[in-house]
Please model this.
Amino acid sequence: MKSLCKLTVEIAGLGSHLPERVLSNADLEQMVDTSDGWITKRTGIRERRIAAETEATSDLAVVAARNALAEAGLSPANVEAIIVTTCTPDYLFPATACLVQTALGADNALPYDLEAACCGFLFGLAQGGALVVAGVTENALVIGAETLSRFTDYTDRRSCILFGDAAGAAVLTRSTGTGEIIFCEMGGDGSRQELLMIPGGGSRRPPTHETVDNADHFMKLQGREVFRCAVSKLGELLVRIPQETGISLDDIKLIIPHQSNVRIIRSICERAGIPEEKAYVNIDRVGNTSAASIPIAMDEAVQKGVLQRGDLVLLLAFGGGITWGSMLLRY
Ligand code: UT7
Model:
């Protein structure tokens, strides 16, 4: 799906939250046959955060949401839509957005979840933007939140080194200044579903002793193939930005790619002839946090002054499904 029509919405506030516990590469060396050297060189990750036993996805989401609402100056009672994007919900149902709604006291909001793995936040922004522009709601609180550690097999060194827990949120309102969504392209290919999935625990393979014994409730990742597809698809998306919008990549202040592997980020920059410094990277500190990755990075970039009002920012995502997306925004 491509969309050239401008969505006249702005990000009125951003927020993020990382749980306290740090899981370092040195800690992982004690758990599986790996090394800090291998993980750093092959992924760029040095540490990631892990939710406390008492914390679930909605708990992380609520803190990020409160921060975003405070920055936007919007009270919970005035939130009209809550879209939680997650592939690690508190429950199969009710939706995590309902739990967030009640914890925030956002009694007047329409709460629902959207699942698109690592592309969740980007898809959520597009959907929240469409709700606001269509006049269905006045605003939308879009949250990417994950507790991937609960679905990670800490005996599988090929995947357990990658993932972390976190949440990020954005408040979308009708544009009052220069903010807008200029272009977005989103897509997917379900025939590649096996590349990255949790095979057990759903209606296809409901939980049984056997699924648990087989560790089917944990994430399965075909890392090398996901890597190859991500580089290829994100490269295509980048090339199309100037073609579709007439905006040169040189004019974009910051690229915020989903943080899955620093080598993926470097590779797409190199192929597109973009200086590496144009891509925001925090994977060294947070690992891959799926739907939470882009809003956390964006919030950090704003806090650090790297991204300022009026700047052009390009979001890029790729993940399970498989799914992908690009979104060019004026912040
Ligand atoms: O969010 C979107 C979804 N996720 C991704 O985008 C992840 C994309 N994939 C990746 O980031 C990379 O493929 C990984 C980091 C997962 C793996 O890196 P790689 O360079 O593709 O390694 P590989 O799977 O090709 O494995 C190379 C070697 C293998 O050893 P042999 O068979 O050559 O002897 C692995 O067993 O590295 C070994 N290996 C490890 N060694 C030490 C794999 N994981 C580890 C490890 N520590 N943690």
Observations:
- Residues 223-245 form the longest helix (23 residues).
